[in-house]
Design goal:
Layout: H1 3-6, H2 17-27, H3 31-44, H4 48-72, H5 79-86, H6 89-118, H7 127-144, H8 146-177, H9 192-195, H10 205-218, H11 224-229, H12 235-244, H13 246-264, H14 276-283, H15 289-322, H16 326-331, H17 341-351, H18 354-359, H19 361-393, H20 408-425, H21 430-455
């Protein structure tokens, strides 16, 4: 038999509902929550809870839009398919490669962070050696079978979830028992620490607005679970179950955890440059609090990197299904286990260049510039996905009794306007302003190239 007749042409459906449900919970929890919560709390105080709820609600509506399109066509393995189908192939090509870049650059950043976290315990081993060893393990996990990827993510997510639930449980115990925190700024643990002297803009309205992009980007990656659901045995059952719980997960793991932290310690005394989660563990007398949190953020980074490798491979495979160039034909072939091995190896190979990028100052500066630009590009991609959904609603594919986005006539335009609002807020601070301009430049230049390439 020839190679084309023996190898599969569709992705494996090896993820179980158990895998996806746990990944759905863990997928909304990034390293930004563990390490960056102090920064956002310092900007807005208790108002940050409102920002998380507003942002979480709009991202839930986006997830429902994605879920509605995937429910109709579970074979769609990336956003490329739906954007190409419901807008046009040029826009699908633009979204596909743009999304791939927003996966590769953060993956390189996560790998760099993993090397630093590992040096906490292994300071005498060069970071680049540990980075390449980690990549070797994750590549094997992603190349063997999708269920191994799912199993790894299941345990990565479990560790993150347990850490947050521990903080919530400890905080509730402190509140019930009237625990008094030590130190010069100590006091009784109570929800009054949130409500007493409450102001919407304790540091001014500008700082309140600055927090929106920070909170938004802590959620980036939430869309992964929708794509993973499509690789389950029964996607039409799993997709609604997983996506419908997104808002609940946000309320518990973000709003709940941060509310508990601000109840434990008056937010005005929380350090902006330290993890408030470490502080909670230290208050209960856990001397290894820093080591424990280092382990948790290491797990969160490994989880993020593993998922980014997985998604990058699926994204290129989806591009290869939509286009017929020589590069696309090369990546269109799957392994015998129905894994897009060539696309995974190509993506992982670039991520493995991270140590080289970090060693060369000129490359490192360029990387930092492009990495910041991915934030703006993500907003463009999310907006185009919402536009594709609007086109889907007007197409013959629309299922009136399908898994529909709730209150579509209001929530769809409101979600698009929210993404535009976040993009506009990037111009407030100098660093974000550079990212916004870079994102706009990429959108125009690569958008024109995509139009030329697809129609040549």
């Amino acid at each position: 038999m020839t190679e084309t007749t023996t190898k599969p042409t569709e992705l494996s459906r090896g993820l179980t509902q158990r895998h996806v449900q746990m990944m759905a919970i863990g997928g909304t929890i990034g390293t930004g929550l563990f390490l960056g919560a102090g920064d956002t709390i310092n900007l807005t105080g208790p108002s940050v809870l409102l920002i998380y709820m507003i942002t979480g609600a709009f991202l839930f509506f986006m997830m429902r839009a994605i879920g509605e399109m995937l429910y109709v066509d579970p074979k769609s393995s990336s956003f490329v398919s739906v954007v190409s189908k419901y807008i046009n192939r040029e826009t699908g090509y633009f979204v596909g490669w743009s999304y791939w870049i927003t996966l590769i650059l953060p993956a390189m950043a996560e790998l760099t962070a993993i090397g630093q976290y590992l040096q906490y315990w292994l300071p005498h081993i060069a970071a680049w050696k540990m980075e390449l060893a980690i990549m070797a393990i994750l590549i094997i996990l992603n190349l063997t079978a999708v269920r191994f990827f799912g199993e790894a993510e299941f345990w990565f997510a479990s560790i993150k979830i347990i850490a947050i639930l521990m903080v919530i449980a400890i905080g509730l115990f402190m509140i019930v028992t009237g625990f008094k925190t030590p130190g010069i700024h100590g006091g009784t643990v109570s929800f009054k620490n949130i409500t007493d002297g409450f102001q919407f803009f304790p540091n001014g309205s500008v700082d309140f607005l600055k927090a929106f992009p920070m909170v938004f980007f802590s959620f980036v990656g939430i869309e992964f679970v929708g794509l993973m659901s499509a690789e389950t045995v029964d996607p039409k059952v799993v997709i609604p179950k997983v996506i419908n719980t997104v808002l609940v997960r946000i309320m518990i793991f973000y709003v709940g955890a941060l509310a508990i932290i601000m109840a434990i310690c008056n937010w005005r005394y929380l350090p902006a440059n330290e993890s408030p989660f470490v502080m909670v563990f230290q208050l209960i007398g856990l001397h290894g609090a820093a080591a424990l949190m280092n382990f948790v953020v290491l797990t969160a980074a490994l989880s993020a990197l593993n998922t980014l490798i997985y998604s990058a491979g699926r994204d290129i495979f989806a591009l290869s299904k939509e286009n017929d160039g020589p590069l696309e034909r090369y990546f269109a072939k799957l392994s015998r286990t129905a894994i897009p091995a060539r696309a995974i190896l190509f993506s992982a190979g670039l991520i493995c260049a991270t140590p080289v990028v970090n060693f060369i100052p000129a490359l490192s500066s360029a990387f930092n510039f492009f990495a910041s630009a991915t934030a703006a590009i993500t907003l463009v991609i999310y907006t185009l996905i919402m536009i594709a959904h609007r086109h889907y609603r007007k197409s013959s594919d629309f299922l009136p009794d399908g898994f529909k986005m709730p209150f579509y006539r209001v929530t769809s335009p409101a979600t698009i306007l929210f993404f535009i609002f976040i993009f506009a807020l990037l111009f407030i601070t100098p660093t974000d302003r550079i990212a916004a301009y870079a994102g706009l430049a990429w959108t125009i230049i690569f958008g024109l190239f995509s139009r030329y390439y697809v129609n040549k």
